[in-house]
Write a structure and sequence with these properties.
By secondary structure, this protein is α+β, with helices and mostly antiparallel strands. It folds into 2 domains: 157 residues, 2-Layer Sandwich (BirA Bifunctional Protein, domain 2); 49 residues. It contains 8 helices and 7 strands; from the N terminus they run E-H-E-H-E-E-E-H-E-E-H-H-H-H-H. The strands form 2 sheets. It has a 5-stranded antiparallel β-sheet with strand order 1-5-7-6-2, with helices on both faces. It has a two-stranded antiparallel ribbon with strand order 3-4. A hairpin with a 6-residue loop joins strand 6 and strand 7. The longest helix has 24 residues.
Length: 274
């Protein structure tokens, strides 16, 4: 069974959770430590392996790239200033608080187990995911800093880290941005929460426009109340379209690629219920 796993989180230097979250949060230091597979930051990994840095903004590779991005992030966050709008200090600026979220971290999981995966096919998927994230982040005023692939867990997964030059990354989170915009326009907190959920569903749908081409369903069978037979039939359909898309890519035929793209989004292709 292959279904999509894509997730966005944001992190602060102090490790405080985002406003409204009921869960704790890791600090940016622990995120960079886990990416680099530092022993104290990845106790859940049985046999940590060196991370594969696929891209870094200044062209560095390996753990040097991860360390460089962390230093750049820390310097940027430390230099960020926030306008003071009330009180005696109104009109001045202050340093950004350490609990402000200054790092966006995406994670995307490939559906074939490590050792049984198709490298070429997986890397084609990663290229499309990277391009999509780059466009999304740039449109929101941010920049992608680092892309890391981990191959030391059951399934390959890729991490994408992004920042905003001004410091805070709230605008890079689709759900929080949608909620903030609605409340700023006079909406209630309850309405803001609905806007948050709707924005995140749309984000998952957008990711699946890529993932579906590689055989990943938008939701698993349990979430959609599918029988085992229905799920197997759906997966056969996905895999057939996936193989056709791969063949079209290999041939370089733009018309064939477009036909498969349309088929993936056509009525009847499995998608999240509205």
């Amino acid at each position: 069974m292959a279904f999509q796993f894509a997730h966005i989180s944001t992190f602060s230097r102090s490790g405080k959770a985002a406003s409204g979250s009921k869960r704790g949060s890791s600090s940016t230091r622990s995120i960079f430590g886990e990416l680099a597979r530092e022993e104290e930051h990845c106790p859940h990994i049985e046999a940590p392996a060196a991370p594969l840095v696929l891209w870094e903004r200044s062209g560095l590779t390996g753990r040097d790239a991860i360390r460089a991005v962390e230093l750049r992030h820390d310097e940027q966050a430390a230099a960020a200033r926030v306008a003071v709008t009330a009180g005696k200090a109104a009109g001045s600026t202050r340093a950004l608080r350490r609990d402000a979220h200054t790092l966006r971290a995406d994670v995307y999981s490939w559906h074939e187990p490590v050792g049984k995966h198709d490298d070429e096919w997986m890397l084609a998927w990663i290229d499309e995911i990277m391009a999509r994230v780059g466009e999304e982040v740039a449109a929101a005023g941010g920049q992608v800093e680092l892309v890391v692939l981990h191959m030391d867990e059951a399934f390959p997964h890729v991490h994408v880290l992004s920042t905003v030059p001004e410091g805070r990354v709230d605008q890079l989170h689709p759900g929080r941005r949608a909620k903030a915009e609605l409340i700023a326009a006079g909406g209630t907190d309850k309405e803001g929460n609905r806007a948050y959920k709707s924005a995140m569903r749309r984000w998952q749908d957008d990711v699946n426009k890529i993932s579906a081409k590689y055989g990943q369903a938008r939701l698993g069978p349990g979430r959609r109340r599918l029988s085992r037979t229905e799920w197997k039939q759906e997966q056969a359909s996905y895999q057939s379209l996936s193989r056709a898309y791969y063949a079209a890519l290999a041939s370089g035929d733009p018309d064939a690629i477009e036909v498969i793209n349309q088929a993936m989004q056509a009525p009847g292709t499995p998608q999240e219920p509205s």
